[in-house]
């Protein structure tokens, strides 16, 4: 506001390499000399304090950071966090960008970020995040060529790689489907069994096959009708007799069971699912890409745990088939035992530990089953389907940018050149500064001057998305217009921090680049920070000044509070431009009073020339058509001039009247700080009115 810009020193490397570290080290060294405490600065542990055990008197092994040396934690944190990626290597299984700065990995757009984007209604941004910027192999190759050559990015017509990994099925023949080749020896034994007359009209079976046959004979509609009739009968019986509390509880539990059974049966009918499908006959087999076998150094093979669990199922199932088909005299107990082993192997494959003690390998490590790969935050659905790692993304630490507009952010050159690399290559080729992609990349690596000029042109029409995790509501990800800044940190306007729940103590943010024209339009129209000024939860303003900003506005507009005594000559109240009291023997200020200015530009010019201070009281001429509100009816003081005019002085304004008591002009008592604040508010209101009139 007053052309004074401030930056946080620990992240500012504009002066020299290691400038911040040298500054803090020198201060700690001087402090150790002045206080005669060498522990303040030790070469081995600079800025850390050695702590003693109060019981034994021994030193703890690791020193800790206390007091002002805590700033060392923030120094060069940006060096560890800054990272950007346009494209690179991809994971073998998921085909998504790798993770980590060392592998040139991409930033993750998790499920919470996806929900925030859904809250904005940005369909095209979501589409490119989850397809050709992540794991859609064919589409991302097309996009890479289009961004360099130029053209419109097509919409992907098929599913990404994560949704194409469909399982096949392994038929468990031995468990439920087998045929006895000959009844030659079994039929006579069956008919001569004692008690045959009791069960000769019954069909005897056991295991999952029996359950499957019962479920196949189940009529769901009859089940619903009979359950409804029983529920009504229980209701009538309960209303007739309410004396026995135990019976009432029993009836209530039965009624709840009937309701759940009817709901389940209706769900089966609504989804066209047969109940016998709940018994597993076909075991899903994951494709090889999801259970890889990788050769490591030394020729050894490293296999997924799923492969070992599948091997156990297949081995036990084949053993059961051999027992049923080849050996006619196999005891029934042995067949039943083998069936239990097959069931145990299938249970371990689906959910290791469901039977109690989990199965372990030779190194006492628990096998990871289906449920371990699917469930939880790191499971397949939440890790690779609901959220994905994406290209054209980066991250860095945020610092305050006091000179930025609300809708702008400052991107370091190191991140910007990586994010917009393909667009810069296209600009170099189109303007004939490079003949091919290889020459353009060499110019980018050498950081030639023309590269930065083209980068600025590209960034002028290209918004970016900033995201701070965790994304608790939709304002956790917003769009900004990027500009190039020095240093290695992302500059951000302080008023947008509340939406991100961020502060400037080392927080980091991820930056994403929308590629297609539709995605860029959505970012500008729906996600720009200056269009999201209200809380989506309660509707209150969210971009409001707080804390240090309020203190700054208070100091700017408070004035030095000299009171009405400054209107006339009072040597005890005279001050210079530095707000220092003037002595009586100083003839330059003996007859000085508050300055009068015809307009605000003259007052600001006097401040810039250092003739007055920003909180020095002054009289500013006011328009007659603008009303001045005062709490006094009579003036505090009246000054008469030799020509007959006189001044009615009130608490905050002054009225110049003629001999005929006509108002000639009005002056208000203010300061340069208040003038600057008023001009900013007036400009903002006028801009809002213009935008509102254009919208109408």
TrEMBL record:
Residues 276-557 form the RNA polymerase N-terminal domain. It comes from the Eukaryota. One of its GO terms (cellular component) is DNA-directed RNA polymerase complex. One of its GO terms (molecular function) is DNA binding. Its EC number is 2.7.7.6. The keyword Oxidoreductase does not apply. It holds the Pfam family RNA_pol_Rpb1_2. Keywords: DNA-directed RNA polymerase, Nucleotidyltransferase, Transcription, Transferase, Zinc. GO terms for biological process: DNA-templated transcription. The keyword Lipoprotein does not apply. It catalyses: RNA(n) + a ribonucleoside 5'-triphosphate = RNA(n+1) + diphosphate. DNA-dependent RNA polymerase catalyzes the transcription of DNA into RNA using the four ribonucleoside triphosphates as substrates. Belongs to the RNA polymerase beta' chain family. RpoC1 subfamily. This is DNA-directed RNA polymerase subunit. It comes from Crotalaria pallida (Smooth rattlebox).
